[in-house]
């Protein structure tokens, strides 16, 4: 049979309601993961774990969050660790692929050109497109994970005296965890011991940033390095990413410079490296090389803002997404300047896109505020640590001041719901909203970054 | 000379740039107030107060905030108290009148009918309108303040054994402080001692709500009691006010019911009264009959949300205003339902109005977040009390967990700026934005509540 791309819409496969498919797929993965983690073989020592712990970690892994209530390395067996690694890979791949497909579908329906596939004349997403996207995401994933695994493995082997097999395993585990923005680490203090080692921190940071840019951006960067030729989505994502990295690095470094429990303990070069690393991780990887429990409350607040904004669309990052945030800034800027239309670079932003960004941002604020109030009520813990934890769960970051394990079970279940809603809510909400937009008469070239 | 209303635009009087006039007027009032409070005669005991204390309390009074760093009754002399009372009256009257005039100007320019004055054929605001508005605001203010002063004065005289003159003074002071949503009280624990006395709490609550509805709504309610005939602005303001009062009462009462330091110490009827009172005061009067320093952090967070939303436009309340908040909800609702146009009741909300509401809300969030980070950095105090304090200052509420006096001077100056920006920012920003809107061809009847 010749492999001609079929042009059927994905209705038969369930993509007639893409959001439902995504939610069902992720819920299924969480359930399977919970069942696997409940097996006694997943745990070290005697007997299996309890239901809430299994559910929490399966959700945290599938949603590539990285919040944990137990120490990954000592609590889970090698089998358990591999289950978690598998869930991370499924969750990260699933997010990237589904969000890319949904973005493609939205672009097609709205008549916007896209670089993910060449053809733009159709309004539906065919099986050929699905194949292209899945293969592309897979190739990208394997490429980044392999390179980072090799670098990390060599470093662990050569500089930290790990046995070759163990070093390779550590390299693979943390490369998968970083590219998928999962933030699970096999040391109880995350990457704190490597705070001043650029050979560990930089590959992980690059991998995290790449995964967080999102598949459409990675694809376009590979084909076209001249910014002037980039699509609106890529321009906005890259601009916002660079700006947030610079601002975040300056903010964290300046704030913690003299804190003896964090940057103050390091030499100046180490402070810069660790400041940069802690600016990368809120978006939204969740590794840490400094102790968030010892940070200034101001740093925690600023980090919460970074976490809430998150990373790029159709990648492994969470949050409301940098394009959503930047688009709202463009709207405000247009309003303050008194312009009737909102322009971003050379494109006009439609009112509907602006409304969708607004809807995602405000519903996300509402979710965070409601969950913070609920967890404070349940746990009676202090607002600043709860707010940080809640934003971390919602934006699927995984950073914590260390309270996760001490939260009462109902509060942990709130976090489970938040991780799930935070992982899928913005993506599915925006695609659901955008797919209902009717096509309109062609006026000016309209632009529309992926949102959510 | 006959007093024919002139139809000249207010350009010669400075209203060509209304925002500048408002800002200059308020800054002038703050400076005069600071100078008066610096006089030795304003203080009890020997010598005058310091510059920061005088500036802080003049700003707090003119912006009708009510945050204090000293105990009003014992620190200031009778002269000082009267200065503060005068500043409150100037600030409250100024806010109500200026915001009403700006709202009138915006409505005229946008070709919307308004009930503040009968004529709608002109696009400018003439001296006759100014006179109408100023007289209307003055009459409304005197009416509410007089009635409440009499009720409170009688109560203090008959039930609390105050001398008649003293009781009258207390009545006048707290009626002015409540209608203008200022929240200054002459007891160091605010109104805590009257927590279960409906004869004190209810008149103050009614006065606060009335002042917070805003002049255009009060005017319309006086002329027309049938909701079906109300303007969009009045409908939205009344709906949001009632909803927030009910939700706030339930929230505070449920949350604090068993807190032995707050509601738990009262009998059930007293708990309901105090729960209601603490739901009225965040919007944005700032009296309290319970100790906010002893409240659950969840209650503080929920109260912060209420404070941020604030009260009605063109009144004495602060915050982003209930119409701004409700309009954003309508936008989200329309988006979630997939409707192209946003409708509120029977009116279509323009995209520009939605964008203006969004701009006010997000810039306000940014101001609160930035100030919270700054004050946490400066003071090293805990996030939850700082956030509460910052929102209280920005929304000109005046509630506090009790940290105001303990804040370092730079942090107090941040609050001074916040009070000023929070008082004038939303009003002037929206009017500046809206006045630049060009008039458009008449399509459907368009609606536009006052925003900010
Ligand atoms: K993560
Ligand atoms: K107030």
If you had to describe this structure to a student in words, what would you say it looks like?
The structure is a homodimer of 452-residue chains. Chain A is globular and about 60 Å long. Chain A has a three-stranded mixed beta sheet. The first copy, chain A, has 452 residues and is mostly helical. The two termini of chain A are 39 Å apart. The first copy, chain A, has helices at 18-38, 51-62, 72-75, 78-109, 127-159, 164-179, 198-213, 215-223, 232-256, 268-280, 297-309, 322-337, 351-379, 383-394, 409-435, and strands at 342-344, 347-349, 446-447. Chain A has one domain (17-447). The model of chain A is unreliable at 1-15 and 438-444 (pLDDT under 50). In chain A, a hairpin with a 2-residue loop joins strand 1 (342-344) and strand 2. Chain A has 15 helices and three strands. In chain A, helix 4 runs antiparallel to helix 5 (127-159), helix 13 (351-379) runs antiparallel to helix 15 and helix 14 (383-394) packs across helix 15. The interface between A and B is large, with 41 and 41 residues. Chains A, B: It is found in: Cell membrane. Chains A, B: It is a multi-pass membrane protein.
